[in-house]
Write a structure and sequence with these properties.
The complex is a heterodimer of chains A (679) and B (400).
Chain A: H1 2-14, H2 17-35, H3 41-45, H4 47-57, H5 65-91, H6 97-112, H7 114-127, H8 140-146, H9 153-172, H10 175-179, H11 187-219, H12 244-273, H13 276-293, H14 306-310, E1 320-324, E2 329-334, H15 339-366, H16 379-393, E3 408-409, E4 415-417, E5 421-426, E6 434-439, E7 445-447, E8 457-466, E9 469-478, E10 485-495, E11 500-508, H17 524-530, E12 535-538, E13 542-546, E14 550-555, E15 561-566, E16 573-575, E17 579-583, E18 588-593, E19 598-606, E20 610-612, E21 616-621, E22 627-632, E23 638-651, E24 655-660, E25 666-670, E26 677-678
Chain B: H1 2-13, H2 16-40, H3 46-59, E1 61-62, H4 65-83, H5 101-142, H6 146-159, E2 166-167, H7 171-176, H8 181-203, H9 206-211, H10 218-250, H11 276-303, H12 309-328, H13 335-340, H14 349-352, E3 357-360, E4 363-366, H15 367-399
Antiparallel strand pairs in B: 1-2, 3-4
Helix pairs in contact in B: 1-10, 2-8, 2-10, 4-5, 5-6, 8-10, 8-11, 8-12, 10-11, 11-12, 11-15
Classes of the chains: A alpha+beta (679), B mainly alpha (400).
Chain lengths: 679, 400
Amino acid sequence: MSVWKYEMKKMFIFQKGLLFIILFIILTMASMISLDRSKNPDIEMNASSYSFYLKQVQGSYHKNTEQFFASEADKISNAKVALQEASDRYYDGKMGKDEFLAVTGPMENVLEHEKGFKLIYDQYTYIREHPANRYFMYTNGWDGLLANENLDLLWVVLLLLLITPVFCFEYESKMDTLLLTVQKGTRYHAICKISLVFLTVLILSLAIAGIKYGFYQYKYGLFNGNYPLQSLPYFGTSTKESSLNEAFMWIMAGKLFGSLCFAMLILFVSVCLRKYAITLFVCTALILIPYYGLRLESTKYLLPGPLAFMVSTGFLRGNEYKNNPFKDQMELIFREVSLMSWSIVFVVTVCLSIGMFVVILIRRTNVWNSGLRNHGRKVSTLTLILCMMVTLLSGCNSAERSQTSDSYNYSSKQSFENSRYLFKVDETDLKAIRLVFIDKQTGEKRNFVRNPMPSLTRVENTIFGNGNDVYYMKYDSDKSGVIEDVTRFSIIEVDTTSFKERIIFEKKLSTDKSMILGLSKSNNQDANFYLTISSFFLDEHSLYFIGQNEIHRVDRLTGKMTVILKIPASTNVAFDGRMIYYVNDKSQMVKYDTNTDSEMIIPDLITRFFILTDTELLFLNRKDQQKMYSMSLHDLTLRKITGSSVQEFHCDKQYIYYVNKSDLQKHRMDINGENNILQ
Amino acid sequence: MVTLIGYEWRKHFLKWTIVFAVAVFSILNVLKIYSIHGGNSLLADSSWKELYSQMYGQFEGKITDEKIGKLMKIYRPLEQQTADHTASTTYRNSNTQLSNVYEDFNFYRWSYVNPMKYAYDYKAYAHAVVTTANENIIFFKSLNNGYEARKNAAVAELFQGRTITNFSYTEMYQYYVQYDFSSFLVLLICLYGLMSVFLSEKETEMDTLLLTTKAGGAKTVWAKLLASSLFICSICLWFWLIDFVAYSWIYASWDAASSPIYVLEEYIHSALNVSLGQYAALSAVLKTFGMLFFGLAFLALSYLFRNALVPFIIGLLALFGCISLQEAYMDSGHILVKTMNPFVLVVNRELFHKAEYIPLWGYPFPSYIVALLFSILWGTIFLSGLMISVRKNALRKGGG
């Protein structure tokens, strides 16, 4: 027992093992908390409407499922049409308020869950390919826990730190020869050391598995563990029959086995080579080189050794193919590991481990060799260097600024005007649509984006302006292979006094660009959203992106994205620096406060189209035959601007331009509604 | 001093473990290059390779209207036949060269038409860049934005007269310039090899004894540093040579070396006007420079400890930190952050594939110059740290 106690004391206290374990647990938890992103962020952002549908279909695919989806899709499209009709009838005075509320209430409830329906429908298209073993379930928790094959580098490092000194320490301090002369210093001592290492690895592995399970259970919830593994698209093509709970147990058992083998490998190498540097080098190379060097991901599962088991998720994956564009053929990118191959790899690995164990015992009875002394490590230096690394990895933040804001209108997203220039999209040459600016004094038209090297960059035709700062968005591509691949999305700020450009936001989109080690990955779902942005606006803390029927807010400091608003497809959206204005499904004007995240319906303002200026809201009044009105933003008073119905209108800083509904003539008047002239 | 360097070299680097590691890693390196060829090359398929080499004689060399006409004569009918996706997919039709008309079309499209079109259009593109840059000079001068005017002048000068006159098989270079695996192997070897340079004397407690000798102290440290640099350079030279030879041999390609670097589409905005062959050499030099920096960092790290365990692990983690930072900022517009990371010298396509400038005192400096300056700065900090700690120890231990 005293040998055990002494070895434990040496490993955890003298060799600072306990400190390394605590550091490892802190770093693991910190990285989980700060770096974990849900696999499908849309589900998290639309949790309530998604769970509304999930509750109705959860579980296996029934014969009624198809009918359910068809009827729900009908219900949603009918509700949209009916709501529009009811609003029209109500605002035309053909329907009373009570009746209107009674009719539209249920429709609004249906439409409230529209995004959730889209999400569950995506899942349905996946499940119906193979309904026997794919179930409807909430996948983010299990995806986070199981659906990755990343080698836990911190875990590898911890094992190296804990296990390398077990034998090396004695070789270094020349104690090995002395030890062999005492009664319990030979095989018994070696077995004690190995048992202690195995016990430590076992406990730590279980603890880490527990922490990970607990984290995903707490953050997302790990429901429906008895559902088939194939319910997760990551394992979609797998032929192995297993439930999610069983898969978790298998993967954890695999990781534990892999870690034990790795521990044995470290002990074996340290006994054979006796020096720290070479032991660390050999063990690192044996793990990392096959992990990063093998082209086909699945090849590493055919190599006997600890690596395959340390990333054992892959044993449960099925065949996966990717389209090869040069030959129009599907190419294998992951080959399923058959039970036979697994058994062979497992047996060979076990034999190797037993062989290593035997060699350790033999060498601990016969070996006499010189070693070196160790005076301990400088913990303070280590902590300092680790802190420096954390600081290095923490990235950069964009600078902030504060000023009053110009108003933004989605309908005029292709133009902006400040005191000196007019910025707009020039569509005169349809083959080269570009952003231009016009000097208001001279009338000269020039390119707004001054980059002389335009290839591999796509500038989107939308701008946002605020005083002298004008912003545009662009996508950068890479052509390192034969196919062009969009790699980055950026928002660029242009100071129009000097036309100096500054990147205020950047997002990496590419997921499969050639990487050195592939340590920095981006989320596919996130990337898809950034590719569908139609316009944007911003304030000093956040960026707001208008995507498909949604407004997303992205924190400029942390990059965290949330859905703040769901908007009808064809509405205008306006922003005055703090408030977002939009028209809801019932043609009511809604004001959203971005500081308090609260919504307010502006009373008595019914419209389908509006424009926000610096002081008022100009809109076509649905209650007064589409005549143009304005509402003051200060005291909310209404003022009629045109006596006749208006088809459409737009405005700039000076004038309002509109088309009269009765004669379709174009008119122009001053921004205050005076001096109406026919154009 | 030379004897001292030779002695240090023999003591630390002429070990069977290092020789064995270099040999094994060299084989792995060649296998990796072979697998890259198998996975990515258009000509990995033997039928494509055969047809390519048959056709290559007709189209290689100077791009002329005659050659373009000849290629279009083959390509246009294929394009028309496959346009509406109704052509027959019968295997080995009498009038097809590969398995069917679609494969013929894909072959000509990716192997000949697209690269030749790019090469042909490049002159006009470069001219357009120069024109825009010249317009920008006038524009920015009118706004008193001196820096942007100077930057555009640099771009105009860089792109002036760029043209691609020859068509050659460049696939080897396309993948060679992106190859990083050998750098990872070199870094691992350096991490191991350099650990013992300072530690071996500490472990045997010879460091105190060394200080009493004439050549001890700073002189020994310099000899160790120079021997280490020599080791790093020779390991780099060996691996870069293997890379180049293996690529040339596996892709069976030697004749693109004189083509300009911008013949690769990724390098359309290349920061340099050099040929592919020159670029390969330059890139190797810069990679070696990056390795020297990391070597110095590993040495400085090992000096702080008394055995290899913790410095090896910290070195490994620092390496991963630099790599992940580099990956996160790959292709980023935040050029300064990118250049501050010394690992960018190792992945130096990031510095050369696009002409990027950083303002220093109002003047545009190419990003590769700034990256070099940063590495020199970091290197100097490490070196002076090392030298200061050596002197302090020498005095203390020498007195005691």
